[in-house]
Amino acid sequence: MIKIYKNFGPVIALDDVSLKVKVGSIHGLIGQNGAGKSTLMKILSGIYASGTFEGQINVAGESVKMSSPLDAQVRGISIVPQEITVADTLTVAENILLSELAMNRKGFYSKKNGLQKIRKFLEDNEIPLTADQLVSELSLHKKQILMIASALYKNPKVLVLDEPTSSLTSDEIANLFSIVRNLKKRGFTTVFITHKLPEILELCDAVSILRDGKTVRTSERSEFDANQLVSDMIGRKLGDLYPEKNVLSKDAKAIFSARNLVVENPRKPGEIMVSEFSFDLHAGEILGLGGLVGSGRTEILRALYGDNRVLAGKLELQGSEITSKDIPSAIQSGIGYVTEDRKLEGLFFNLEIKSNSTASILDKFKKMGLLNKQKEKEVAAEITESLAVKPQDIYEMIRNLSGGNQQKVLIGKGLLAKPIVFMLDEPTKGVDIASKAEIYRIISDLAKQGVGIILVSSEFPELLALSHRILVFSGGAMRGEMTGDINKEQELMMMAIGQS
């Protein structure tokens, strides 16, 4: 792709962008949300037809013009989107053959011939799928592999994978990487789009970075490291990613305390998830909860928020004992919470920013049973402005926002109740590096304003850099406490696996 220029009215989406990918390589494409990755791929895939943009596309040395996605496929370009799009009621073989069904001489689909073709195809390409298995029986990871297999069946010259690891576990990611490396050995050319720097460092032979619709850099693997990638993506040095921690007063009193708390396993009523533990949280302090998946961190936050049962112990907020028996009482007491799953629990994706922002405090806008819509609009606008939500239009649908901006709306929703204690569970999950930096700033600013923060994050550098102190949990028990220091990642890991 050479000197691509694309505008939408007065807005320039791509400005002189070039992307050169070597045959048989794995080429990474990264950039924050809004950098232009999606627009560039829509041009490559034929969604934006030739004539709607300036520049040139060459495939295997030949200049091509594409008027539709089908035209792009004919030219040898296959794109696997981030969203899972498969036919659950069909078999693996039938899904792969949808665009080119195996037909017998009478013009009808031959299931036997189709199975034979796909079995051989899967075996030849070492793809771990069973041809006659129903797709409805596949895991999310296997469905993603099926989408890759369907793209490969067209024998593309260029295979584009758009955020393929966004919903996968670490083991599934390792399996996917194995498949991609095997494709490279077989001569396939892959463009790998992601916002996860470790994936670029581990998998890619080269990388191109986009920022604000322009190509910042294209480098071979030997020419870049994590610091350089972050700097190129966000336009500033890695050291600026994490804000400075506010200094806590030595004689600061605790605003929130837990004593001998025992938390129930929500999946097994009556069973203990986390045994007795205690803590104090001070005004302006960021208290991290560290541990591995399944250590009980999320269950602790939900218990403090009244969404999970406390079997024993007591809680005090500003010196008075409280009972977070349910979510409304926790909110009324001054405890706020941001869930780790904005899609299932945090936001209404069929509603706009305004309705999402104010959903939990609508009663505050009512007088004599009538909703003050003007006041609701003003408060929603204040949230979008103060948290730099893009776009600033409070009537924009949540589903149209980037992951980072969705997360900022979710945080703003929790802040409208003006909490004394604000708890965040994986607040940067599924957002790009630039959005992470903005969320870090929001958390830091809240602490500087005196809000007590309890933070859960599976990204240890993030947890260490933001937290003043960290309580580490493993095997249903608190294993110890440590100061937040980005240089102590090994110590945190050892405690998290119960080896300290």
TrEMBL record:
Keywords: ATP-binding, Nucleotide-binding, Repeat, Transport
Leader sequence segment: none
GO molecular function annotation: ATP binding; ATP hydrolysis activity
Keyword Cytoplasm recorded: no
CDD domains named among the record's database cross-references: ABC_Carb_Monos_I (cd03216), ABC_Carb_Monos_II (cd03215)
A Pfam family recorded for this sequence: ABC_tran
Domain ABC transporter: 2-237, 256-500
The UniProt record lists the keyword Transport: yes
Protein name as catalogued: Unannotated protein
Highest classification ranks of the organism: unclassified sequences, metagenomes, ecological metagenomes
